[in-house]
Protein backbone atom coordinates (compact mmCIF):
# COMPACT_ATOMS: atom_id res chain seq x y z
CA UNK A 1 0.00 0.00 0.00
CA UNK A 2 1.39 3.41 -0.98
CA UNK A 3 2.01 6.05 1.66
CA UNK A 4 -0.24 9.07 1.73
CA UNK A 5 1.62 12.27 0.84
CA UNK A 6 0.27 15.42 2.49
CA UNK A 7 2.56 17.87 0.68
CA UNK A 8 5.40 17.93 -1.83
CA UNK A 9 8.23 20.38 -2.30
CA UNK A 10 11.29 20.58 -4.58
CA UNK A 11 14.55 22.39 -3.90
CA UNK A 12 17.41 22.74 -6.39
CA UNK A 13 20.99 22.76 -5.12
CA UNK A 14 24.27 23.09 -7.00
CA UNK A 15 26.94 20.97 -5.30
CA UNK A 16 29.63 23.36 -4.03
CA UNK A 17 33.35 22.57 -4.12
CA UNK A 18 33.67 22.54 -0.32
CA UNK A 19 31.24 19.58 -0.12
CA UNK A 20 33.41 17.20 -2.17
CA UNK A 21 36.49 15.09 -1.58
CA UNK A 22 39.62 14.77 -3.76
CA UNK A 23 37.62 12.68 -6.25
CA UNK A 24 35.02 15.50 -6.55
CA UNK A 25 32.39 13.24 -4.98
CA UNK A 26 30.12 14.61 -2.25
CA UNK A 27 31.19 13.43 1.20
CA UNK A 28 28.38 11.25 2.59
CA UNK A 29 27.66 13.49 5.59
CA UNK A 30 26.76 16.47 3.39
CA UNK A 31 23.61 14.74 2.17
CA UNK A 32 22.11 15.42 5.60
CA UNK A 33 22.73 19.13 4.99
CA UNK A 34 20.91 18.91 1.64
CA UNK A 35 17.90 17.39 3.41
CA UNK A 36 17.96 20.26 5.90
CA UNK A 37 18.18 22.87 3.12
CA UNK A 38 15.09 21.35 1.45
CA UNK A 39 13.22 21.02 4.75
CA UNK A 40 13.95 24.65 5.68
CA UNK A 41 12.77 25.84 2.24
CA UNK A 42 9.52 23.92 2.70
CA UNK A 43 9.00 25.22 6.25
CA UNK A 44 9.60 28.78 5.07
CA UNK A 45 7.10 28.27 2.27
CA UNK A 46 4.37 27.28 4.74
CA UNK A 47 5.26 30.08 7.17
CA UNK A 48 6.35 27.69 9.93
CA UNK A 49 10.14 27.89 9.99
CA UNK A 50 12.24 27.07 13.05
CA UNK A 51 11.85 30.61 14.41
CA UNK A 52 8.06 30.31 14.19
CA UNK A 53 8.19 26.89 15.85
CA UNK A 54 9.98 28.54 18.77
CA UNK A 55 7.45 31.38 18.90
CA UNK A 56 4.74 28.73 19.10
CA UNK A 57 6.59 27.17 22.07
CA UNK A 58 8.13 24.10 20.43
CA UNK A 59 11.40 22.69 19.24
CA UNK A 60 11.41 19.90 16.65
CA UNK A 61 14.51 17.71 17.03
CA UNK A 62 15.28 15.02 14.48
CA UNK A 63 14.83 11.68 16.25
CA UNK A 64 15.43 9.40 13.26
CA UNK A 65 17.38 9.70 10.02
CA UNK A 66 17.70 7.11 7.26
CA UNK A 67 19.83 7.39 4.12
CA UNK A 68 20.37 5.07 1.17
CA UNK A 69 23.10 6.10 -1.24
CA UNK A 70 22.45 5.02 -4.82
CA UNK A 71 24.92 7.10 -6.87
CA UNK A 72 27.29 9.87 -5.81
CA UNK A 73 26.64 13.54 -6.41
CA UNK A 74 29.60 15.45 -7.81
CA UNK A 75 31.08 18.94 -7.74
CA UNK A 76 29.06 21.42 -9.81
CA UNK A 77 26.17 19.02 -10.34
CA UNK A 78 22.70 20.46 -10.04
CA UNK A 79 20.51 18.24 -7.92
CA UNK A 80 16.88 18.24 -6.87
CA UNK A 81 15.84 17.38 -3.36
CA UNK A 82 12.22 16.26 -3.60
CA UNK A 83 10.43 16.20 -0.27
CA UNK A 84 7.23 14.30 0.50
CA UNK A 85 5.53 15.00 3.82
CA UNK A 86 4.10 11.61 4.88
CA UNK A 87 3.17 12.06 8.58
CA UNK A 88 1.85 15.18 10.29
CA UNK A 89 -0.26 14.15 13.28
CA UNK A 90 2.06 12.32 15.66
CA UNK A 91 5.34 13.61 14.24
CA UNK A 92 6.85 15.32 11.22
CA UNK A 93 8.01 12.54 8.87
CA UNK A 94 9.47 13.41 5.50
CA UNK A 95 10.66 11.17 2.68
CA UNK A 96 13.27 12.60 0.32
CA UNK A 97 14.63 11.71 -3.08
CA UNK A 98 17.79 13.38 -4.28
CA UNK A 99 18.20 13.22 -8.05
CA UNK A 100 20.25 14.68 -10.87
CA UNK A 101 18.43 17.79 -12.12
CA UNK A 102 19.35 17.14 -15.75
CA UNK A 103 18.82 13.40 -16.19
CA UNK A 104 16.47 12.67 -13.29
CA UNK A 105 18.74 9.82 -12.16
CA UNK A 106 18.14 8.90 -8.52
CA UNK A 107 21.14 9.57 -6.28
CA UNK A 108 19.89 9.14 -2.72
CA UNK A 109 16.73 8.14 -0.83
CA UNK A 110 16.24 9.38 2.72
CA UNK A 111 13.74 10.03 5.48
CA UNK A 112 13.68 12.07 8.65
CA UNK A 113 11.37 12.00 11.65
CA UNK A 114 11.02 14.96 13.99
CA UNK A 115 8.88 15.32 17.09
CA UNK A 116 7.49 18.37 18.82
CA UNK A 117 8.99 19.11 22.22
CA UNK A 118 7.44 21.79 24.44
CA UNK A 119 10.13 24.38 25.14
CA UNK A 120 8.77 25.23 28.58
CA UNK A 121 8.61 21.70 29.98
CA UNK A 122 10.99 19.80 27.69
CA UNK A 123 8.30 17.15 27.22
CA UNK A 124 7.78 15.38 23.92
CA UNK A 125 4.31 15.91 22.45
CA UNK A 126 2.46 12.80 21.32
CA UNK A 127 0.32 14.86 18.96
CA UNK A 128 1.67 17.65 16.83
CA UNK A 129 0.57 21.16 17.78
CA UNK A 130 -2.50 22.66 16.13
CA UNK A 131 -0.35 25.54 14.83
CA UNK A 132 1.73 23.04 12.83
CA UNK A 133 -1.32 21.32 11.35
CA UNK A 134 -2.83 24.68 10.36
CA UNK A 135 0.38 25.78 8.61
CA UNK A 136 0.68 22.53 6.64
CA UNK A 137 -2.99 22.66 5.58
CA UNK A 138 -2.32 26.02 3.87
CA UNK A 139 0.33 24.60 1.51
CA UNK A 140 -0.63 24.66 -2.17
CA UNK A 141 -0.09 20.90 -2.56
CA UNK A 142 -1.81 19.83 0.70
CA UNK A 143 -4.02 16.76 0.44
CA UNK A 144 -5.93 15.24 3.35
CA UNK A 145 -5.55 11.56 4.13
TrEMBL record:
Keywords: Hydrolase. It comes from the Bacteria. Signal peptide: none annotated. One of its GO terms (molecular function) is fatty acyl-CoA hydrolase activity. The keyword Hydrolase applies. SUPFAM superfamilies: Thioesterase/thiol ester dehydrase-isomerase (SSF54637). InterPro entries: 4-hydroxybenzoyl-CoA_TE, HotDog_dom_sf, YbgC/YbaW. Belongs to the 4-hydroxybenzoyl-CoA thioesterase family. This is Acyl-CoA thioester hydrolase.
Amino acid sequence: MAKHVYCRHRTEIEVPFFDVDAMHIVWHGHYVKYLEVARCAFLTEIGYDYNEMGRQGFSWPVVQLNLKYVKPARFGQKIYVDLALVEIESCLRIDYTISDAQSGAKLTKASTTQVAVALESGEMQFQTPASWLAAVAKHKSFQTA
